[in-house]
Amino acid sequence: MHDELEQRLSDYLDGRLDPAERARFDERLARDAELRARLEEYRAIGSALRDDPAELPPGFYARARERFETAHGKQRWFRPLSWEAVGALAAAGLVLALFLPEMMRDRSFELPLRQAVPAKNRQPAVAEPRPAETPDARAPLEQSAPESEAGSKPQEPRRKRAEDEREPVQQTPGKDEPRQDAAFAPAPPEAARRERQLEQSKPAAAPAPEDASYREYEESRDFLREDVAGDRAAAAPLDAPVAGFFDLDVAPQPPLAVAPLATGVVAPNEVRVVAGQTEGESKRRLAARVSEPDAAAGGEDVSGLRPDPRTQRLVLIGPRSYPFDCAAIRLLAGPTLRVVVPPAGAADETAPGGCALIVLAGFSTVEVVEPGPE
Amino acid sequence: MAAMDGIREPAAESGVHGNEGAENERETAELLDGIRRGDPDAFEALARQCAPRLFRLALRLTGRREDAEDLVQETLVRALPALRRFEGRARLSTYLVRALGNLWKNRLRSRSRSPIVRWFKRGDEGSEEPGAALPDGAPDPLEQLQAQDRAAGVRAAVARLEPDRRLTLLLREVEELSYEEIAAITAVPVGTVRSRLARARDDLRRLLKTRP
Questions:
Q1: Are B69 and A60 an interchain contact pair (Cβ–Cβ within 8 Å)?
Q2: A36 touches chain B (CB under 8 A)
Q3: Which end of chain B has fewer CB atoms at under 10 Å, N or C?
Q4: Distance CA A216, CA A280 (A)
Q5: How far is A362 from chain B (nearest CA, A)?
Q6: Which residues of A touch B172 (CB under 8 A)?
Q7: Which residues in A lie closer than 8 A to residue B5 (C-beta atoms)?
């Protein structure tokens, strides 16, 4: 049937023809048996679509509710405060209102506080000599500062530490006797002092804050953590593409564990993240556990994928600027997913960014292997 | 506007007066406030009003009950808390249908370029892939269809329609929306709605003819 006639038939069915056109089409229908049959077919199809029952599956609302609680549970922070909390806040505000102006006027508060800091706890005027940064120097840091769920937190202290390390160099020598003007500087918080002492006992390995790789690492870790928590999925506009970093709407899952792969095989229903401060380090941390060559030929190269974790149960996240380039990944048919990473020697030491492998569920095993000779 | 059973023309549904309609509007607005605060009871209450009709549309879009449930739940979980301003239940139903359609099309886009999905879907029936609109010599999924009833046959054929045509046809035939409403939801001119409908009907008729 001619396209124009099909169009008019559809318009007729939906009542989109004006009265004159409709009358003419009625005349044609009376003459054309094929056209009448087509009209009846369309009407039957529409009825079949409308009459098809679609009962909600049992347990639909319980599952929907659970999903809502998972996605938006954190918003309970914004629920109204209890009366007790309101009372406590009001009392604290009152105390502040009464005493703060007095404290501001009385500048004698400041000096005793500064002088009260013991000299041994004050900031040293000269930084300890910083060990040379070698590849070997990185490994102890990885071991001494394992990345747990709170493992991403040290980023901020690291920035402070690096700033603190630079600062003393401009001050006068005199390791244990701070300059006079240093005594009037605001006393560093206790936590920052502890961090500095801890840092001085370690080999320096973290990139300096001004280093692009540090920022890339920070960003990578941040968005990784937020995405897995589903935060950005909730805030993403509805017309945004589902695929991508910022749209990972992960179903209920065990707590995120950031840890190196203990073996070459990841158990099902396990969440693992492997991340490093640079692309090369990420690769090394993956490749370090490789124990067998990629003997299997074939397989499907899935590098560059942005899988949907709701159905695909696998998330591979590379550096922000090179997503999924941190490892050549091959998906082999069958119950086993094999992730092929570059050999350790091939790691690019200069490229910034972390690399992560998150296995949510769905595969019986996941193997991380090095490729064999091509 | 005829979109959601529970939230469409609330006064007309039960023959109640305008006051009760206004009361329903207030109740819906309160539920949305609760949802924005993360209240699961408010979410479930509003979901019970919206989900049945959304599920009917989603089932025809996806062709699979599991996918339809997932799509409706995602729509409700994401769209309801994201609604910043409530402008009446009719607007809410339009908003939810548009959200569902967008999420479904985004899924199709992300899956169609993902080999991993093809691997997962291997052997599945009622594929959600935006397959060819017409038989092309490949094994016809309809031949494997076990359910022989007419509605199931139509559902399976609809699942093979090109996505935009599928959505447009279902909004017209199932949701019984006007061309103008469909155009607003799918963000295309009315003329495009008109041509998509004609092509969808023709494609669907031809697909059904290939059934044994």
A1: yes
A2: no
A3: C
A4: 13
A5: 10
A6: 14
A7: none
Cβ proximity of B140 and B174 under 8 Å: no
Which of A57, A305, A310 lies closest to B114 in CB terms? Answer: A305
Tokens of A313: 């149960």
Residue A72 with chain B: CB contacts under 8 Å = 35, 38, 43, 77, 81
Q: How far is it, in rounded angstroms, from Cα A219 to Cα A245? A: 12
Those residues whose C-beta lies under 8 Å from the C-beta of residue A158, and which sit 6 or more positions away, are A199, A206, A209
Of A198, A266, A252, A259, which Cα lies nearest the Cα of A72? A252
Of B82, B80, B20, B31, the closest CA to residue B54 belongs to B80
CB contact under 8 A, B37 and A79: yes
Q: Which pLDDT score is estimated for A98?
A: 63
d(CA B43, CA A65): 7
Residue A75 near chain B (CB below 8 Å): yes
How far is C-alpha A64 from the geometric centre of its chain's CA atoms? 24
The pLDDT of residue B151? 67
Please name the amino acid found at residue B123.
Answer: G
Cα(B176)–Cα(B3) distance, rounded to whole angstroms? 8
Q: ipTM value, please give it.
A: 0.72
The model's pTM is 0.43
Q: Is A100 helix (H, G, I), strand (E, B) or coil?
A: helix
What's chain B's length in residues?
Answer: 212
In contact, B168 and B57? CB cutoff 8 Å: no
Of A68, A238, A310, the CB nearest to B99: A238
Question: Which whole-number Å values give the CA distances from A180 to A110, A119, A125, A268, in the listed order?
Answer: 15, 12, 11, 61
Contact flag A49-B78 (C-beta cutoff 8 Å): no
The yes-or-no verdict on residue B129 having pLDDT over 60 is no
Chain A 7-26, residues with CB within 8 Å of chain B CB atoms: 7, 9-11, 13-14, 16
User: Which of B53, B73, B113, B180 to mutate against chain A (most A CBs within 10 Å)?
Assistant: B73
What pLDDT sits at residue B194?
A: 92
Most confidently predicted of A7-11, A43-47, B205-209: A7-11
Residue, of A10 and A96, whose pLDDT is higher: A10
pLDDT at site B195: 92
Nearest to B165 by CA among B90, B108, B121: B108
Please name the residue ranges forming H helices in chain B: 10-14, 18-36, 40-62, 65-82, 89-112, 115-121, 150-158, 163-173, 179-186, 190-209
Q: How far is CA A294 from CA A236, A285, A370, in A?
A: 39, 18, 6
| Separation in Å, CA B26 to CA A329, B11, B32, B33, B41 | 53, 13, 10, 11, 17
Cβ–Cβ of A51/B151 closer than 8 Å? Answer: yes
